[in-house]
Amino acid sequence: MEEHDATSDAAGVIESRLGIGVSSLDQEAARELGLPRDVRGVLVQSVDPFGPANDLLFADAGNVITEVEGRAVRSETDLANALGAQAQVRSSR
């Protein structure tokens, strides 16, 4: 239960800071997106058209964020922790 709460909290931080809804990329979503099996990251599910990330290249629904400032992103918590660096975000699509 604690892990779920931490994940929910992290997703809330991401949504409020960037205006994007995300979830950890699972194997089914990766397959549907045609991504290689070894891709791990956070799937952008929604983008607030008035949010700060709307104009950023990575902020398209269906993109997968894999790292921020060279730090691997595998979960919502990883992304929330990496947001302190806030510069380059690498995505796969």
In short:
With 93 residues, this protein is α+β, with helices and mostly antiparallel strands. The protein has helices at 2-18, 27-32, 76-82; strands at residues 20-24, 42-47, 64-68, 71-72, 89-92. Strands 1, 2, 3, 4 and 5 form a five-stranded antiparallel beta sheet that branches.
Describe the structure.
Strand 3 and strand 4 form a beta hairpin. The protein is of the alpha+beta class. It has helices at residues 2-18, 27-32, 76-82, and strands at 20-24, 42-47, 64-68, 71-72, 89-92. Helix 1 packs across helix 3 (76-82). The chain starts with a helix and ends with a strand. Strands 1, 2, 3, 4 and 5 form a five-stranded antiparallel beta sheet that branches. The model is unreliable at 85-91 (pLDDT under 50). The protein is built from three helices and five strands; from the N terminus they run H-E-H-E-E-E-H-E. The longest helix is centred in the N-terminal third of the chain and has 17 residues, at 2-18.
